[in-house]
């Protein structure tokens, strides 16, 4: 498969996952306003492990811009870009230790936590006050669960992709 | 699934827990004193309300970027209405203890509850 095509498919997949998350009321099960499952992180993990870091960065930035244009606004764009790039940075730094020191569980949990920290930084920049960080405490605990959930989905996905062996990237 | 877990995963898990505790101590630890709500807009405190001194329902409106209604009742404060797109501020619900906060990021408004000495009007010389 051509890499450009694969990147395009991944961007649209990440977009759909970002959109679907808005429809799925996680707050009903975990009563935390603003909590999200972070399903688009599955795509980021895939890009990081099967493509490369520049692809993962491009997919994330383009996804954030498109989602903001379609469903959001400038505030939500700043939020999602800060969150996505923080998560990506941390996961890219941990990736060399994959298999030896970390499994997808740890990498994904660290990414989810970094995502929340990045968003709090974005919120503090907009609000010009760090008071909102008091809310991060509970979000960090939530990130352990959402990080594990996306890792479980991603590791099952990776196992199937490796078995099918259809992914011959040119 | 569990068998594949590595030692680094545990380190990450513990690191997140430690970060959570540090974050709680720095930003969310309940301070002493009368709960006082600071309404902060674009980094400036625009109003300070001693929550326990509000006997009747009190409303604060901001119609700058979005129409936001903040209400104070029975020693608690919340974003009652907002026409911002994400509604996280309204979903946050009532807050009343020092260390708690609620924010409407699209409107640039933060409510922060701090503990303030209620006896500052009595000065001993």
Task: Describe what you observe in this structure.
The complex is a heterodimer of chains A (about 170) and B (about 120). Chain A has about 170 residues and is an all-alpha fold. Chain A has a single domain (about 5-165), classed as Arp2/3 complex 21 kDa subunit ARPC3 (Orthogonal Bundle). Helices cover about 75% and strands about 0% of the residues of chain A. Chain A is built from six helices and no strands. Chain A has helices at about 5-25, 40-50, 55-70, 75-95, 105-125, 135-165. In chain A, α2 crosses α6 and α5 (about 105-125) crosses α6. The longest helix of chain A is centred in the last third of the chain and has 29 residues, at about 135-165. With about 120 residues, chain B is an alpha+beta fold. Chain B has two domains: about 1-30; about 30-115, mini-chromosome maintenance (MCM) complex, domain 2, CATH 2.60.320.10. Chain B contains two helices and seven strands, in the order αβββββαββ. Chain B has helices spanning about 5-30, 90; strands at about 35-40, 45-50, 60, 70-75, 75-80, 100-105, 110-115. In chain B, strands 2-1-7-6 form a four-stranded antiparallel β-sheet. A three-stranded antiparallel β-sheet of chain B has the order 3-4-5. In chain B, a hairpin with a 2-residue loop joins β4 (about 70-75) and β5. Chain B is globular, with a radius of gyration of 19 Å. The N and C termini of chain B lie far apart (about 70 Å). The relative contact order of chain B is 0.19. The mean pLDDT of chain B is about 90. The interface between A and B is large, with 40 and 42 residues.
Q: Main attributes?
A:
heterodimer, A: 170 residues, mainly alpha, Arp2/3 complex 21 kDa subunit ARPC3, 6 helices, 74% helix, B: 125 residues, alpha+beta, mini-chromosome maintenance (MCM) complex, domain 2, 4-stranded antiparallel sheet, 3-stranded antiparallel sheet, 2 helices, 22% helix, globular
Low-pLDDT parts of chain A are none
Biggest interface, which chains? Answer: A-B, 40 and 42 residues
Radius of gyration of chain A: 16 Å
What pattern of helices and strands is seen along the backbone of chain B? HEEEEEHEE
Number of helices of chain A: 6
Percentage of residues in helical conformation of chain A? over 70%
Question: Structural class of chain B, please?
Answer: alpha+beta
Number of helices of chain B: 2
User: Within the largest sheet of chain B, what's the order of strands?
Assistant: 2-1-7-6
Structural class by SSE content of chain A? mainly alpha
| Strand and helix order of chain A | HHHHHH
From the spread of the alpha carbons, the general shape of chain B counts as: globular
* CA-CA gap between termini of chain A: 6 Å
Can you identify the CATH class of the largest domain in chain B?
Mainly Beta
| Oligomerization category of the chains in this entry | heterodimer
Query: What's the CATH topology label of the largest domain in chain B?
Result: mini-chromosome maintenance (MCM) complex, domain 2
What's the architecture of chain A in CATH terms?
A: Orthogonal Bundle
Question: First CA to last CA of chain B: what distance?
Answer: 68 Å
- Principal-axes geometry of chain A comes out as globular
- How confident overall, as mean pLDDT of chain B? 89
For this structure, the CATH topology of chain A is Arp2/3 complex 21 kDa subunit ARPC3
């Amino acid at each position: 498969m051509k890499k450009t095509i694969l990147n395009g498919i991944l961007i649209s997949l990440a977009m759909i996952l970002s959109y679907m998350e808005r429809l799925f009321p996680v707050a009903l099960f975990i009563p935390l306003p603003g909590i999200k499952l972070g399903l688009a992180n599955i795509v980021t993990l895939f890009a990081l492990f099967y493509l490369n870091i520049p692809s993962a960065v491009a997919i994330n930035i383009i996804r954030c811009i498109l989602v903001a244009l379609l469903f959001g606004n400038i505030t939500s764009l700043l939020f999602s870009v800060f969150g996505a790039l923080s998560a990506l940075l941390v996961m890219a730094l941990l990736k060399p230790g994959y298999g030896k020191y970390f499994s997808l569980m740890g990498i994904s949990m660290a990414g989810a936590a970094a995502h929340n920290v990045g968003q709090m930084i974005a919120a503090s920049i907009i609000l010009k006050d760090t008071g909102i960080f008091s809310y991060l405490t509970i979000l960090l605990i939530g990130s352990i669960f959402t990080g594990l959930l996306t890792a479980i989905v991603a590791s099952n996905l990776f196992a199937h992709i490796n078995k099918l062996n259809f992914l011959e990237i040119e | 699934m569990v068998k594949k877990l590595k030692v680094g995963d545990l380190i990450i898990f513990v690191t997140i827990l430690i970060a959570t505790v540090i974050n709680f101590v720095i930003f969310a630890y309940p301070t002493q004193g009368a709960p006082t709500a600071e309404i902060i807009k674009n980094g400036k405190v625009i109003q300070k309300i001693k929550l326990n001194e509000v006997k009747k329902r009190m409303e604060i409106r901001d119609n700058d970027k979005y129409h936001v209604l903040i209400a104070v009742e029975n020693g608690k404060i919340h974003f009652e209405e907002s026409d911002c797109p994400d509604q996280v501020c309204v979903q946050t619900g009532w807050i009343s203890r020092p260390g708690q906060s609620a924010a409407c990021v699209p409107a640039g408004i933060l409510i922060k509850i701090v503990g303030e000495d209620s006896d500052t009007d009595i000065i001993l010389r």
